[in-house]
Amino acid sequence: MGATDETAVSQSRRRLIVLTGPTAAGKGTVEGILREKHPHIWLSVSATTRAPRPGEFNGIHYWFLDEEEFERRKRNGEFLETALVHGMAHYGTLLQPVLDHLTQDIPTLLEIDLQGARRVKQEAARLGLEVVYVFIAPPSFEELKRRLIGRGTETPEQQAKRLETAKVEIAAAKEFDVVIVNDNAERAADELWNVIASEYDL
């Protein structure tokens, strides 16, 4: 990390909000309600080496990078965290945009999976970056299973794999600073806002 990054970290006066939760816990729904009510919140945009899907736009859904560019940025320490997903495509959170928004006192939110949150925790400690880790939990495992099957976007085999992963993720909730049970998306969004507002004196 260069001197510019170190200065940016030292000048960050607010804490990054990292949001995690198992599949079908309703993170996207909660996040959507939150951003409708509070559009000034900035959601970090991940970088990826996979090709854009129909309707996806660079800089809005993802930053689409080729393998060479992604690896160059990784070598240069430009990522807060990276991961190889399904052995096919790289994903990562670019550090500088996060720092830029934090130093401007803009509420900054990063939605990421459990492994990514753990990597952020390791890297944030090295950088001296303050982070609040929030876990969105389902009311119960049975409700999570009902939601997952009900949305009908995965095969039975994929559902089984996601449910096994969800068990591991739910068990890790104790690693987080705040746990919000999503039994009602509006209420959960308000609870998440209260966490953000307390960090940004809003």
From TrEMBL:
UniProt gene name: gmk
Enzyme Commission identifier(s): 2.7.4.8
Binding, ATP: G21, P22, T23, A24, A25, G26, K27, G28
Name of the protein in question: Guanylate kinase
UniProt organism field: Gardnerella swidsinskii
Keywords noted in UniProt: ATP-binding, Cytoplasm, Kinase, Nucleotide-binding, Transferase
SMART domains reported in the protein's UniProt record: GuKc
Keyword rRNA-binding belongs to the record: no
EC category name: transferase
UniProt similarity note: Belongs to the guanylate kinase family.
Domain of life of the source: Bacteria
Subcellular location: Cytoplasm
